[in-house]
UniProtKB/TrEMBL annotation:
Belongs to the bacterial ribosomal protein bL9 family. It comes from the Eukaryota. PANTHER family: 50S RIBOSOMAL PROTEIN L9. Residues 48-92 form the Ribosomal protein L9 domain. SUPFAM superfamilies: L9 N-domain-like. One of its GO terms (cellular component) is ribonucleoprotein complex. The keyword Ribosomal protein applies. Keywords: Ribonucleoprotein, Ribosomal protein. GO terms for molecular function: structural constituent of ribosome. This is Ribosomal protein L9 domain-containing protein.
């Protein structure tokens, strides 16, 4: 037969933890649980030393400062940069035992201070030179730039000499399919002589205009003229724009043509009484 104590024993891990926790509270047993977030900082042992040399970032010669024991033992003492502060040295220097000493982190060597002074002096000279240059520029009056403009008469003469009588432009023609024969009357057959005679129209009375894709505008003509004038020293000074160019005959639109042919244009110069006439040919592009 099983023991009654054995049957009442906790069967799961959580029950065991709950029972042990209640016993710990009764007997006030300290729990050694780890508390996250808290870190134990290791205490760094320091010793007070007497500086025998100027040490940048620590202090001048003769100062008493705290320093880590490892730095003193491994670096400063072998290099005779500092000595240990013994009881005899404390009495000799007159340093009290309870006096709080701190390192002078602002202390710099003579070389560092010299470099800082030279840098500061250089920056002052540069700032003074910049201010002097700005003052000189403000005092100087701007130099006017004079552009020699051509007279309207001179511009007309240059255009007459440089612009060729005929200017060629090219466009892709639009091909139109033959339209079906139109029936004149329902009572007349297509194949009859009367129908053919009535439908026939003289080609001389039928104006034929072959359209092109796009157009040739006054802006295109002005760009062409500027390219021609740019090759001459005096021609570069002629001012011309699309507003100075116009078509003599009616073209359907004011400033462009959309079909093949020969057209006459007028070139005007602002202020000039005369105009120049030239011919442009819109040719079919192969």
């Amino acid at each position: 037969m099983a023991s009654p104590l054995t049957s009442k024993a906790p069967q799961c891990l959580s029950c065991i933890r709950r029972m042990t926790g209640s016993l710990r509270d009764v007997f006030q047993v300290p729990s050694h649980h780890q508390i996250r977030g808290k870190k134990r900082l290791a205490k760094v042992s320091t010793v007070r030393v007497h500086l025998l040399q100027n040490v940048p970032g620590y202090g001048r010669r003769g100062a008493v400062i705290p320093v880590t024991a490892g730095m003193m033992r491994n670096i400063w003492y072998p290099k005779r940069m500092a000595e240990y502060l013994t009881i005899d040295k404390v009495q000799q220097l007159g340093v009290k035992k309870d006096t709080t000493v701190e390192r002078d982190s602002t202390f710099k060597s003579n070389m560092e201070r010299k470099l800082e002074k030279e840098k500061e002096l250089f920056e002052r000279k540069a700032a003074a030179a910049a201010e002097s240059a700005m003052a000189t520029m403000e005092k100087q009056s701007p130099i006017p730039i004079e552009l020699e403009l051509l007279s309207p008469e001179r511009s007309i003469t240059i255009l007459e000499n440089l612009i060729l009588p005929n200017l060629d432009f090219y466009g892709s023609p639009i091909t139109v399919a033959d339209l079906p024969q139109k029936r004149i009357s329902p009572s007349i057959r297509f194949n009859s002589v009367i129908s053919a005679a009535a439908a026939e129209v003289k080609e001389s009375e039928k104006p034929k205009k072959t359209g092109i894709y796009g157009s040739v505008s006054t802006a295109d003509i002005a760009a062409n003229l500027k390219a021609i004038l740019a090759e001459d020293e005096d021609g570069m000074r002629v001012v011309i724009s699309p507003e100075n160019i116009s078509f003599v005959e009616e073209t359907g639109e004011k400033d462009r043509v959309k079909y093949l042919g020969i057209f006459e244009i007028e070139i005007k110069v602002d202020g000039a009484p005369d105009v120049i006439r030239r011919t442009i040919r819109v040719n079919a592009r192969d």
